[in-house]
């Protein structure tokens, strides 16, 4: 049994009716996490992003029998269970499956865009990728095609550009459907800070700008986005970090690495995990069996069979005591003791005692929890505000 930030169907990360693409973000964050935002779960509802909002709001997809619907924070149905799949609300619309086709529901439970697509992505920057037959295009919130179906694969818009594939070549288009970078790469990632990691046909990774010009020549075995001005790259079996000039700031010396967050990065060296600064020096020695990046000034770490939390000095803020633990979000972390889930504050004090058979992190002031076979919702005081009655439940969104 694992703590999970989400519960999910096996249908994709964001794109209903599709298999995950090779062009999804780099995954060598090499931390052996028990907690995975895309891990499958026996109570299937499509994956939803967490929110930092404290006030209950939004809509949540739930499952009754084999069908999905949506409820509001009072537990009232906005859309009765009648969908075969149900995604999160993003930009006011949620992709749903009716029979064999996908359409979009609005926040009042009305079918805003009738089911007509063979696959449907969530909206991003005012457009959503959809599939008609074997090709993909992009629609606006009224269901009109802004970019006609013409791609073999199409991903969400990010920072004004979308990644698209023709045959086995990837490129980038703008919201008008014009190629900004012609399809030519084996794999591509989103632009961050004006640069995008791309894999050339020679199988090496480099970086291009938005004009398609090579800024950092292909030389890496893998490459991630720039975060805080640095990108983690792989050379052989080792990971290091480069600046936007392509110069190594931290030479490849680690067996695994995560992105820099607030000046420190989680790395793996030998069998241990620790944290380095931007010079590559350890600020917290690699002495943990598992670890995660810092969130809200604390990082979850595992020694032996127990999880706890350390501060930025490497001192235990919450002693090792949990069988599993999530990152902190809005001052609460989901933890497991034996086969029961509860919530602790940054001092390690239980605000909600372990009592649930399964639970999710809080989203918009509510958390989905399972008691027996049924899911319901609690508030941050631990009070059940929507009684357990669903066969599956997910986070509230928008």
Question: Keywords for this structure?
Answer:
41 strands; mainly beta; disordered N terminus; flat
Q: What is the topological layout?
A:
Elements: E1 15-16, E2 60-64, E3 67-71, E4 77-83, E5 85-86, E6 93-98, E7 101-106, E8 111-117, E9 119-121, E10 128-132, E11 135-139, E12 145-151, E13 153-158, E14 161-166, E15 169-173, E16 179-185, E17 187-188, E18 196-199, E19 205-208, E20 214-220, E21 222-227, E22 230-235, E23 238-242, E24 248-254, E25 256-261, E26 264-269, E27 272-276, E28 282-288, E29 290-291, E30 299-303, E31 306-310, E32 316-322, E33 324-325, E34 333-337, E35 340-344, E36 350-356, E37 358-359, E38 366-371, E39 374-379, E40 384-390, E41 392-393
Antiparallel strand pairs: 1-9, 2-3, 2-41, 3-4, 5-6, 6-7, 7-8, 9-10, 10-11, 11-12, 13-14, 14-15, 15-16, 17-18, 18-19, 19-20, 21-22, 22-23, 23-24, 25-26, 26-27, 27-28, 29-30, 30-31, 31-32, 33-34, 34-35, 35-36, 37-38, 38-39, 39-40
Structural overview:
The protein is mainly beta and 398 residues long. The chain is built from no helices and 41 strands. The model is unreliable at 1-15 and 18-55 (pLDDT under 50).
């Amino acid at each position: 049994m694992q703590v999970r930030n989400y519960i999910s169907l096996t249908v994709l990360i964001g794109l209903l009716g599709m298999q995950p693409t090779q062009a999804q973000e780099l995954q060598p964050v090499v931390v052996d996490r028990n907690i995975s935002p895309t891990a499958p779960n026996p109570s299937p509802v499509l994956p939803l992003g967490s929110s930092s909002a404290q006030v209950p709001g939004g809509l949540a997809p739930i499952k009754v029998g084999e069908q999905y619907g949506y409820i509001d924070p009072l537990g009232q149905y906005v859309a009765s269970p009648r969908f075969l799949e149900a995604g999160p609300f993003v930009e006011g619309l949620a992709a749903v499956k009716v029979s064999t086709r996908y359409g979009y529901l609005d926040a009042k439970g009305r079918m805003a865009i009738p089911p007509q697509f063979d696959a449907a992505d969530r909206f991003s920057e005012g457009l959503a990728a959809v599939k008609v037959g074997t090709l993909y295009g992009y629609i606006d919130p009224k269901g009109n095609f802004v970019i006609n179906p013409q791609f073999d694969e199409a991903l969400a818009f990010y920072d004004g550009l979308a990644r698209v594939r023709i045959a086995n070549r990837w490129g980038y288009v703008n919201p008008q459907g014009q190629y900004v970078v012609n399809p030519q790469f084996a794999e591509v990632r989103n632009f961050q800070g004006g640069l995008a990691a791309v894999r050339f046909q020679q199988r090496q990774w480099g970086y291009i700008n938005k004009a398609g010009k090579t800024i950092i020549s292909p030389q890496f075995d893998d490459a991630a986005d720039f975060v805080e001005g640095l990108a983690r790259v792989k050379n052989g079996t080792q990971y290091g970090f480069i600046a936007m000039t392509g110069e190594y700031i931290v030479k490849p010396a680690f067996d695994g690495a995560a992105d820099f967050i607030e000046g420190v990065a989680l790395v793996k060296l030998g069998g241990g995990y620790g944290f380095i600064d931007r010079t590559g020096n350890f600020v917290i020695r690699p002495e943990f069996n598992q670890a995660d990046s810092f969130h809200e000034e604390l990082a979850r770490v595992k020694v032996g069979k127990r999880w706890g939390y350390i501060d930025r000095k490497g001192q235990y803020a919450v002693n090792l005591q949990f069988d599993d633990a999530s990152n902190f979000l809005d001052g609460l972390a989901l933890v497991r003791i034996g086969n029961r889930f509860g919530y602790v504050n940054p001092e390690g004090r239980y605000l909600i005692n372990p009592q649930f058979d399964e639970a999710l992190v809080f989203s918009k002031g509510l958390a989905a929890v399972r008691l027996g076979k049924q899911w319901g919702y609690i508030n941050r005081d631990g009070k059940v505000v929507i009684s357990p009655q669903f066969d599956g439940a997910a986070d509230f969104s928008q």
